[in-house]
Each structure stands twice: as C-alpha cells, then as structure tokens.
C-alpha cells in the first residue's frame, strides 16, 4: 500500500525530475523520470488516483 508519492528534483542529472513512491512498508521506489515537471505531476496524480480507487473499491467491503 502506498503512503505517499513525491516528486524530487535531481540535481545535475538528466532527466531533471523523478517520481518516488513511498510504501507503508518503508520501501521507496523510483517509478518515473522526466525533464518536464508537468509530466511527473501527471504521473504522480495518476498513481494516487489509482491507489485511492483501490482503497475504496467494493471488493474491500466484502
């Protein structure tokens, strides 16, 4: 389960931005990178949207 999603500026590297997923277990995974902040934000938003839809899915209520 995902705790949070973070966009990090990678200093002196290309691509410039990295999307990091922080899991409740403590694991941190780099899942996406781009030179465009907007692309990273869209990707991060999609990850959280999917996580929220899974958290509130009808299957969990059973």
What do these coordinates show?
This protein is of the alpha+beta class and 62 residues long. It has one domain (2-61). The chain is built from 2 helices and 3 strands. Strands 1-2-3 form a 3-stranded antiparallel β-sheet, covered by helices on one side. A hairpin with a 7-residue loop joins strand 1 and strand 2. The radius of gyration is 13 Å and the shape is elongated. The two termini are 19 Å apart. The relative contact order is 0.21. The model has no long low-confidence stretch (mean pLDDT 88).
Give a nutshell description of this structure.
The chain has 62 residues and is an alpha+beta fold. It contains 2 helices and 3 strands, in the order βββαα.
The number of helical runs is 2
Tell me what portion of residues adopts beta-strand conformation.
35-45%
Q: Going across the major beta sheet, what is the strand order?
A: 1-2-3
Question: What's the helical proportion of residues?
Answer: 25-40%
Largest sheet report = 3 strands, antiparallel
Number of domains: 1
Structural class: alpha+beta
Which sequence of SSEs, written as H and E, runs from N to C?
EEEHH
**Globular, elongated, flat, extended or rod-shaped: what is the shape?**
elongated
The rounded Rg comes to 13 Å
- Provide mean pLDDT, rounded: 88
Number of E strands: 3
Low-confidence stretches: none
Distance between the termini: 19 Å
């Amino acid at each position: 389960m995902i705790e949070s999603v973070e966009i990090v500026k990678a200093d002196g590297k290309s691509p410039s931005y990295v999307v990091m997923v922080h899991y409740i277990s403590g694991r941190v995974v780099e899942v996406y990178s781009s030179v465009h902040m907007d692309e990273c934000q869209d990707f991060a938003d999609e990850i959280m949207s999917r996580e929220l839809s899974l958290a509130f899915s009808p299957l969990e209520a059973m």
